[in-house]
Amino acid sequence: VIKKEADKITSQRAVTKLQSNLRIVSEDLRGSRQSVTNSEAEKIVSQRTILRLQNNLRNVFEELDDLTTRLLNKTDKLQVAEQKVIELTKSMNDQKQDKETSLAKLDQLDKENKDLENQLRSNEIELELLKTSIETERNKHESAMEWLHVRCTEMESELKRYKDAHFNLLLKLDSVHNYSKISIEESALVDKTFIDQRLEDERAKEEHLAEETTYVINKFTSAKDRHEVIKSFKRRIEKESCSSPANNQISPDNDSGIEYDTTVSHTYCDIK
């Protein structure tokens, strides 16, 4: 642009110089015309001078037209250059605006990244707490399973002991009914009262044991196993309750006992 401005100034100076030369030639032409004498020689010289001056004047006009054309061309180029400068300035402003927008988006992404990192740390802390809670619950579950195993073993032993005691008591009751040397009154006052009390105590113990067994079954076994255990237990109680001393064939309910013990063992294995 500066170079074009310099060329423009140079062209203007050249035009001014040509205009000055034109004025000088015009003045010379006027002076020549005034100094023309009546002599033929002077006329010829004057004509030649006039022709020369006219030729010079024509050349000056041509140079002036050429300089004017060049000046117009440079002016057009200058306008094109100015338009390009305006477009470049607009493009630079747009790029600056895009840069500011990108920086704002980058700041927003940094903020979101920090939020995600904080959330990740919070999730890791929560995960550790959950692992600790799971470990605690696992320990509690293992302790409960150990207690259940011990309790089932105790209940099996206690049930067997109650069953044997009940069987022995029934044998004793059968022998009392078949004992012919003792009167009915003495039996009612002595052995029958004692035996009834023992039977009542054994029945209460079995009911208590049945309640505990039902509690364990309902809490730790599936519906199918619970149904089988309760069914077996009821069948054993019914057989023992229906046993009569008059039959003289009292025997332990080995089948129901085996079925119950097996079911309890299977139930414990399923729970474990």
What does this structure look like?
The radius of gyration is 66 Å and the shape is rod-shaped. The longest helix is centred in the middle third of the chain and has 138 residues, at 40-177. It folds into 2 domains: 2-98; 143-271. Mean pLDDT is 71; it is low at 180-188 and 243-272. The protein is mainly alpha-helical and 272 residues long. 90% of the residues lie in helices and 0% in strands. It is built from 6 helices and no strands.
Which structural class do you get from the secondary structure elements? mainly alpha
User: What is the helix tally?
Assistant: 6
Mean pLDDT: 71
Inertia-based shape? rod-shaped
What is Rg?
66 Å
Strand content bin: under 5%
H/E series? HHHHHH
Q: State the end-to-end CA separation.
A: 94 Å
Please describe the biggest sheet, giving its number of strands, its sense, and whether it closes into a barrel: none
When the domains are counted, the total is 2
* Number of beta-strand segments: 0
Helix content: over 70%
Coiled coil: 50-133
Keywords: Coiled coil
Secondary structure blueprint with pairings:
Elements lengths: L1 H33 L5 H138 L6 H6 L1 H30 L2 H20 L11 H18 L1
Helix pairs in contact: 1-2, 2-4, 2-6, 4-5, 5-6
Considering the chains and any ligands shown, give keywords for the structure:
272 residues, mainly alpha, 2 domains, 90% helix, rod-shaped
Compact overview of the structure:
The chain is mainly alpha-helical. It is 90% helix and 0% strand.
